[in-house]
Amino acid sequence: MIGIEGQPVLTAAEMRAAEDAVIATGVSVETLMERAGTAIAEAVRRLAGANEVLILCGPGNNGGDGYVAARVLAELGITVRVAALSEPKTNAAKSARAGWLGPVETLAEAKPAPILVDALFGTGLMRPLDLRTGPTPNTPPAEAGAHLGNAIDKVTGSPNWTPASAGGVSIGECFHSLANAAQLSIAVDLPSGLATDSGKALSTPPVFDLTLALGAVKPAHLLQPAARYCGQIRLLDIGVPTLSQAEVLKAPNLPTPGPDSHKYTRGMVAIVAGTMSGASDLAAFAAMRAGAGYVTLLGVSQGPPHALVRTPFSDHALANDRIGALVIGPGLGRDDTAKARLEAALNAGHPMIIDGDALRLLDPDRIKDLNVPVILTPHAGEFDALFGKSDADKITRARDAATHTNAIIVFKGADTVIAAPDGRVRIAQGASDWLSTAGTGDVLAGAIGAMLAAKLDLLDAACAGVWLHGDAARRLGAAFIADDLAEALRSARAAP
After folding, report:
1. Which of 60, 161, 273, 496 is a Cys-bridge partner for 280, taking CB atoms 3.0 to 4.6 Å apart?
2. pTM of the predicted protein model
3. CB within 8 Å of 174: residues ≥ 6 apart
4. What is the 3-state secondary structure (H, E, C) of 391-435?
5. Are 27 and 142 part of one and the same domain?
6. Is there a domain that residue 163 lies in?
7. Does residue 39 have a pLDDT over 90?
8. Structural domain includes residue 1
């Protein structure tokens, strides 16, 4: 099992193409399934100990992986049972089913086990699992199982089919019941019920303890709401080379001061203040704690820290050629003064981080004509205001926005996506839920400012700021405020 930091992220189509490229060299689908099932079995064996394992197998190749895993676990002396929705539908899955010599229960008949493995659908699911399948709750288990099997064609079949409105046995109900009774629940590739590329929950799966990603990380492992159901995510190597412009965000390689360093070589950050000075103070404090050598606040502010240089806002102050990053937006306001300050900042010629109120005043077409590096840091509401609402997935939206503006986009949230104009994307693993408090976005803007002033590559600067921000939150635990988060950047920055 491999950690996913820095690993490529592939859509369902990209993963199929990668597998097809391997198959084109003469490797059979059955061989790939054997590799996947064996890797699953080894991972489950390490975690299961002497406990009984129940594997739920679907009709496709995900189910085929489950049958192989069951066979290998049994060969290793692990007590394992299999419950299936129906007979396999693909040739490879049929072959895997033939290799499993034990009994196969129906989902409705299956009794819980301490270890549950979900190999029902994985990637590529197009329909919800919460389907009523016909019989009443009093239907005998064998008949209920038959109805569950018949429902699989409806899950993956015609787009004109709609679930029955009442009565019957639900696949989702059986699924939840078995998972909730398990001491450890493991999903193969994805918890069944999630859309691979968009991260949408087609139906609500159980929350799994562990998800074993086969061959590559998928968007649903990282995008919400899907990611919340995956638990810990580990990658299994199945011998399929994978390349992608999208990757999981990893810990940055940050510069540290040397004997010849001074405050300006470490980077000067200027923060434009506005009507809410507390927000700009937070951004300034964050930039200092993230490692900037010199931070100046342009506008009205008071109080500690005394190391913060406070200067009245003016065109002269903006013209300082030592400014390595200019942050505007936190607490800026949306009045005429704010608009004038934004216009002056856009004309100053410094690398910029544009956040908060400035995003509400910004014409995105203006950004692509600037000849300076720009990082935009919108949350969902600000993103919609800038670029319009869309049903597209978050990765696609961030990429399109980066291309449109010729800027780095940090599309913030519990599933932050960072996109560059050349198509590169970095996706952060799940952020602390406690970041949902006022001022944490201001802290992020300041942290990114420090990274940009340190002369990191534009995408690297955005990624480093997001990583430090997330790591600081993890260090704090519960119920922190933005002031705590800014202070915790010091520990995150100092971590090896």
Report:
1. 273
2. 0.91
3. 107, 108, 110, 148
4. CCCHHHHHHHHHHHHCCEEEECCCCCEEECCCCCEEECCCCCHHH
5. yes
6. yes
7. yes
8. no
